[in-house]
Design a protein that fits this description.
Elements lengths: L23 H4 L17 E3 L16 E3 L6 H15 L4 H4 L11 H20 L10 H10 L2 E3 L5 E4 L2 H12 L25 H5 L14 H23 L19 H15 L3 E2 L3 H9 L13 H7 L7 H18 L1 E2 L8 E3 L6 E3 L8 H22 L3 H5 L6 E8 L2 E10 L8 E7 L1 H12 L16 H13 L1 H5 L12 H13 L4 H8 L5 H8 L5 H29 L9 H21 L7 H12 L2 E3 L4 E3 L7 H6 L20 E2 L5 H17 L5 H25 L4
Parallel strand pairs: 5-6
Antiparallel strand pairs: 1-2, 3-4, 7-8, 9-10, 10-11, 12-13, 13-14
Helix pairs in contact: 2-4, 4-6, 8-13, 8-15, 9-12, 13-15, 13-16, 13-18, 18-19, 18-20, 19-20, 21-23, 25-26
Amino acid sequence: MTTTAQRTSPWSGERTSPFTGADVCEAARLPLPKLSRRSLFDDDIWYFIDVEGLSQQHPDYAKRLDFTGIRNPRWRLTAKEFFFARLAPWHDGVRELAHAFRTPLGLMTCYQRLLGLTSWLNWLDEHLVSSLPGVTQQHCDSYYQLCQDIRDEDGVIVRPSSDATRTDAVQAIMEPAFNSELFTADAYRPGFIPWNARSAHSVVGKVVTKKNKTPTLDQSVLQPILAAALYVIETLGPRLLALPPRSMAKDVNPTDNAHNWHQRLTGVLNEHMSCGTPLEVLPDFRINTRLARGWSTSDPLLRVNLNAIAQEAGIRMFRPNYLKSLRRLVEQTLAVVGIQAGWGVDAALVQRADGAGEVPWTLPLTRAQDVDFLTEKVRTACLLVIAGVTGMRASELMELPVDCALPPFETGPGRVRYRLASRLIKGQPRGGRREEWVTVQEPHDAAVMSAALLGEDHGQSHLYGRVAFKVRFKNFRDWVNGPEGRRLGLAPIPENLVNLRMLRRTLAVELAHRPGGLLAAKIHLKHVSVATTEGYAALPGGAQGKFLAEMAEEEQGRNKDLTLAVFRDFQQGIMPAGPGARELVEFFTHVDGRLEEMAGSTVNVKGGDQEVVNLLSRRAATLHLATANYCWFVDPSKALCLKLAGTPGAKKPMAGMCDSSRCPQATHHPCHRPVWASSAETKEVFIATIGRGQKSEKDRLRAELERDLRVLSEIDTAFGTAA
């Protein structure tokens, strides 16, 4: 679809914005420290870096809203008014609008929506639409069609866009229409709402369902992941911790100042010569990398770890241009002090993961690169175990403090409870609330190991912070499937998609498919309702959901049979008893009349069971069984149990508070007589045993006995069985 390029007339509104001069964070109820920088509505960039209580999942780039990307200055003001209204819907200038949004947006959502709105407004500017009243549905359709594909820098279509991308595009176009009355610089024409206010999902064609679409991980994928992670934690983790502290590279200050690198490196080399400290040797696999890059086998510096020299000087890496001017000095130092093996040359032997003999636990390690590289692999293994066994969401993993592993305590002989502390973010106020996950020993030990690998002077408050799981897992899988993983005997991990949601759902299924597991999964995964857990457990709705549906169907069939039996008794002259008997008899009389009419007007219609059940089905749906009566729950406002409980709006009766002798919707039938007779007999025995000093108790029981005898008399009278 193409759009005709035409200039539209500018909007002539000259009102002052109701938000002019407003403090954005104060209006949005986002707390800031006293001396923090505050953003005003009139600023083109709003900063939220110092907002207190934000969760770890908020990246720094999303803590500011930059409106300078919108080229049209008037639309820039419109965008600021829109997002101010979305951040502070309780503001006086917003809450009186009929169609304004009432729920405040989070900062991350505002950041994403601003990107979409900026793209839409700039597209309009490129297509010569200079004022929003000139926007038509044709413009909206054209832009949406453009957003249906992902293009490269040259505009070539790479692949279709996702439903989420298309939904974001529709929201960016449509949502400003609901705040048109608020905008003072420019707005859509009155009454214009793109796509006639249809939902974004319906425009995109996305089917909204409560079913959980996240697939579980196959055991052929999950088993090698957890096996490799546990092996790495148990085998490599303790040995990494046993390395000398300086090998953890915490003394390296990666300033990389280029202006004095020569002086700093020269000082390190001279110190080596004066102290006689050997240079560090390079691991074999890094020597092979150098040879592949063109180094000569006769080069005296081939086996020298140049990066270790740079790191001693506080520089992250030894750049190629450094070697041109320092080669001669490095060779002189090498000739004087020689080289020494790096850490791990004499590494202890460990059992391979596949049981095929023993190998050194590591190849030689350099000061920072290899130690830090291996440390991150162990920490990633810890993350995999914690995520896989606890089922934590990404937001909850990000909130794990360094001391998240709470001290274990015994709950009984030989029983120990392990807990991890974090914060529950989803569905909670800003910053979430503190929560504990009860788990087994493996993730608890993994959290302890991951914290220990940070070292003493790590300066971190969170165990992982923002978790880039996709990158972390890919690097871990490549390492397991690479030469080092094969050397340690680790089973390769298939190249399947793995993410935190899949780990969480896999755990949910494993828990929910055990006896009593649905409730256990609901509690462990911190779900708001069991229905959510059922969605995790199996599609559609969970095995427990299917079971409950089957039970409801069986109950409805039973109720129809009971109602039919009571109606047949009525036809034979056997009437119900109880306060609700008159209303039930009137209903049965009406049904009996309908059957006679049907039999008289249609030759082939007989008053068979199916025809009767069809007429009784609505009343059967209200039937609830109690111990000593039938409850016809037609009108909740008449239910005595709900009045006594103070819950007149309930959808089901409360059998525990039933007094069928007084409730206008209760009836008594022959099947209930033994219950009332037994109750009367028991009370007579109790009354006979009560002493003279318990007069009030005896009077209470006598009143209840009179009630039981009255009900028995009514039943006997109604059924014609009186003596």
